[in-house]
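Entry 14. Structure prediction run on the chain below.
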Amino acid sequence: MRNESTRESRFDTATHSRREPATSRRILRWLHDEVVKAPLVPVLHPSPLRMKGLGLFTLVGHPLFWFAWTLWLPQPYESLWMRLFAASLGLLLIWGKVSGEPSSRFAGQVFTLVFWWTLPFLFSWMYFCNGGNAVWLASMAAMILIYYFTTDWRIATVGIASGMVLARMLFDVWGPPAPVISAEASAANSLVLFFCVSIGLLLGLSSANLRREHLAQTLTTMGIMAHELRTPLATIALVGDAVRGASSGCSEEQSARLDSLVTRLHMLVRNMNHQIDLQISNARLLQLPQSRESISAGQLVQRAAAEYPYRSARERESVQVTVESDFEFQGSQPLFSQVIDNLMKNAMRSLASAGEPLKPGDLRLIVRRSGTQGHIVVSDRGVGISPHVLMRIFEPFFSTNRGTGHGLGLAFCKRVVQSARGTIRATSEPGAGATFVVELPIHRATHSPSEHP
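Output returned:
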């Protein structure tokens, strides 16, 4: 019995020791996925209206609070110049370059700086200058929850910590005379603020995880559906081959007509398979491989234009590739090929909507470099994009083509370009076509200017 107990004890100990590393690995993997790997979202639920609304509230709210805390319900400390400076920062959020493209990297950076100064830093400064009284304890609690509701939970957590520390340091050096916060009040206030941070952290983390899971499940379903379409397409191609084989017993005119129809059928199948490849790539929106191979921009664009599944010879002739000055950048060759395909597909759709006969140069792909940056330009003479649509085209699930569009093509392009530390932007005028510019850091410049129609 003693030996059996000893063996069981050793078995339990060994099992426990194996479970501990497995549990630790799961926790570390979860932390890595949530803290490091998950993309930062500086502006939650970005939209022009939301950005302008926050900017207007900042612009008007700070003067109103100065009036309330100075003349209506006077507090020990207020600062008119700090309130006016904070209010002026609201103009940056209303600024068209920020509110017009709320999902852009620039808008995210401006939003992060404005909200860090006007929320955790300014509120912490006022809290210390007012001796941590009840009004500013409540204001700090509201600030914490607002901050977690408007930006990424990681940005909010770091912002609150850095804002409070910096405000305290400046208060100790330059702060005005203020009521001393007793040890008991300090402990009580700290507990309240810690509770607010904990709730904000929990809600922010769960909301971010829920958004990613919803998007990942949707994209995975789309990828599976696109993949399953290959089976009927393969059957259609085989039927076409069978029709072509059986046409040998027909008259010459009938055989030629059937052969033409089979050729069109195979072209349609090829085009559909190409679209399926795009959908499967788009479905990997949140799981892009981190390949860092050296890519020639000129060769990339020329190959993409040559292999694009044109529906007619006129479509092929409308595309013009110009390599003004080639360059190499680091990224994933297959993913960037899909980016060019996506941009060409959108341009072809725009040209078709224009209703004009296609002409050479209606779709131009240009490769050039400027200083340390290289550019891939895709320009068309199609119907163009209206201003209110242009500011949202890179948002996931936003599409103007409600019949067949899913709104992931340009979001996919943006993620691929950003993974190579680049940017993508679009300019357009309704009726005058659209131009997409992919800007990438140059890994190595090459000298092979050429032009290929």
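Residues 449-453 have pLDDT under 50 and may be disordered.
Filed with the rest of this week's runs.
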